[in-house]
Amino acid sequence: MIAGDAVEKRYGRKRALRPVSFDVPEDGFLLVTGPNGSGKTTLLRLLAGLAVPTKGMLTVDSERGELGFVGHEPLLYSDLTALENLELFGRLYRVPERRERSGMLLERFGLWEARAERVSTFSRGMTQRLALCRALLHEPSLLVLDEPYTALDAQGAELLDHELEALTGTRTIVLSTHDPERVAPLATQRLVLA
Questions:
Q1: Exposed, middle or buried by CB within 10 Å (0-12, 13-18, 19+), for 63?
Q2: How do residues 7-26 score in pLDDT, each as one tens digit?
């Protein structure tokens, strides 16, 4: 589903990602690790189509509408409620029965009681949970998750653990984290950036 051959990214003279090669089959799970500044976020932005490689070849066999992405920004509208955000994204992705799917995800991620509250009132952890709901709403075939455990409390991290466990083998997942041992048992491949 994803193939990279000597993929590199530069911004002017600054190298953001050293050449890297990898091949992720359909329904595979690629765990991306490395120290800060190694290019993890850059690589995931390339996979999500938010940037293009400076050199090398990158193939992502997935339509943009089949991508679920969680990055450093939650990509939510702070003036809308949790439910309104999911309703909006459900419409954009043409999710059938989006109200039911939204409710199910809000319940699963412990946000049902806060569904009518504006995102601007949410803690960073609640916002991260809602960003995960947004990314999963349209049941994407490719999930690109950049540090998805950021700001999650122990309960939120456990919810994400269970979700990833349920999704492993049913869709392609690329995940970066500073705590690789947490998801290592689920990963079919590991890419260590230097």
A1: exposed
A2: 999 999 999 999 999 999 99
Q: How far apart are CA 108 and CA 156, in angstroms?
A: 10
Provide the CA 118 distance to its chain's centre, in angstroms: 22
- What is the tens place of the pLDDT at every residue in 151-174? 999 999 999 999 999 999 999 999
Closest CA to 176 of 79, 82, 69, 101: 69
Structure tokens at 33: 């690790």
Q: Which CATH architecture has domain 1-62+141-194?
A: 3-Layer(aba) Sandwich (3.40)
Query: What residue ranges of the chain are covered by domains with CATH 3.40.50.300?
Result: 1-62+141-194
Residue with tokens 């075939």: 141
Instruction: Please say whether the beta carbons of 118 and 79 come within 8 A.
Output: yes
Q: Are residues 175 and 29 in contact, defined by beta-carbon separation less than 8 angstroms?
A: yes
Residue 97 is classified by DSSP as T
Instruction: Name the token pair of 42.
Output: 């850059």
